Amino acid sequence: MGEVGAGPEVLLSGLNFPEAPRWHDGRLWFSDVRARRVMSVGEAGDARTEVQLDTEPSGLGFLPGGGLLVVTVNDQRVLRVDGGAVTVHADLRGLPGIGERDFLNDMVVDADGVAYVGTRVPNAGPVPPPPSDVLVRITPDGTAAVVETGLGGTNGMVLVDGELVLAETNARRLSTRTIGPDGTLGATSDYADVEGAFPDGITVDDEGGVWVASVFTGPFVRVVRRGAVTDTIRPAVGEAVACELGGADGRTLFLLCADAAALRRAWSEEQRTFVPVAGPEPIDSGTIQTVRVAVPRHRDSPR
Q1: CB–CB of 207/240 below 8 Å?
Q2: Domain range holding 71?
């Protein structure tokens, strides 16, 4: 297992909780979740708010015509932002396997505008909930259907070579399944050995290597298909939340990080499990950092 040579540099600071990065049209788009805004930033650090919402956003994706899809964490909806107008693209409330208190998380959108969204069962006790999260497929017309159940903490997801790779945080694995011509999903298997990481946001390079943000343990790691960890990057400040490959040549790895207290307030290193903890979380301490890597983003990654 190797360490990437040059350390990360902070590109943008003062964020509340950056999540769900997507490289699109020459800029990194991301959700600043608790600030209820979708932002973008260029490689020179020029940031702007793309849309301010009255709800917390998470997963992002783009339709073939350019419309932005935004997952709402607590409203169980996917919004469409187009030309300044915000409409409901899909309403997931009441779908089988989605409880009233469940929240939505990350999303990936393919080249045809088909979106995949993961749900999460809230963690209300001292241990992670049983594997009961679901994966929802949304067609370009907004029709939503549950296509997989029994997942262990759905988080980041990527499309690579006809497969959907999903980070299951609580299960501490990357799982993969083929996507059939009619949108059906094949059997689930492990993509790689994450060596005890807690996979959160992920991104894929042109060799099929997946960069993984290991939430709770701190670093970003790269794993290879049917292999294990090949590289490790430790943030300059904060701890790992999500990552995305982008930049003009696809070799800039954007690292989205949060203050350790914001991540570990519900994690006990001593007990090696989740525990409920009261108290305020740090705000405006999130950062986006960059580091150069050898292998560029996957040629078919959504843009």
Answers
A1: no
A2: 2-292
